[in-house]
Request: fold
Amino acid sequence: MTINASADEVFAVVGDPVAMADLAAELVAVRWLGGATEAALGARFEGLNRHGRRRWRTVCEVVELRPGRSFAYDVGTGFGVPISRWRYDVEPAPDGTCVVTESNWARVPVWFVPVALAVTGTINRPALNSANITTTLDRLKARIEDRLPKDGPLTPPRP
Reply:
C-alpha cells in the first residue's frame, strides 16, 4: 500500500507493536516482556488478541529490525508452540511517499491446528489474516495521513 509519508514516518509506527495494536484487526494490546521497552532484536512482548468474543494471548519475539525498512516478529503461545511470523516492509519512493507491505506466514505445527481453531474460532486462518492485513494497512494509511483519530481505540471489524 502506498502511503503519503516518508519511510521513516511510517516505520516509526509499523516498528512499534504498541502503536500497531491501535491499528490491527485482532491485536488489541501489547505489553513488553523481560524489561524491554521498545523493539530490538530478541525483544519479547505479549499480545492480547480478540476475534469476536474470543480472546487469547500470544508471546512474540522481534526477529528482524532494519530501521526504516523492515520489522518482523515471531508469534507463539505462552508455552512455546510457534504460531506465525508477521513482517512489515517499507520501501521509500523518490516522490517522498513509501510502499508498505505486511506479510504473514503460518508456523503452527499441524497437531496444534485444532487447538488454535478452538482458541480463536477461526476456521480459515489464511483468509482471515489476508482480510486483517487489508484492514490494518487501511488504518495505518488513514492514521499516517491524518484521517484517523490518534486518540481512542478503534472498533475491530466484525468477524
Summary: The chain is about 25% helix and 35% strand. Strands lie at 2-3, 27-33, 44-51, 54-66, 70-76, 82-92, 98-106.
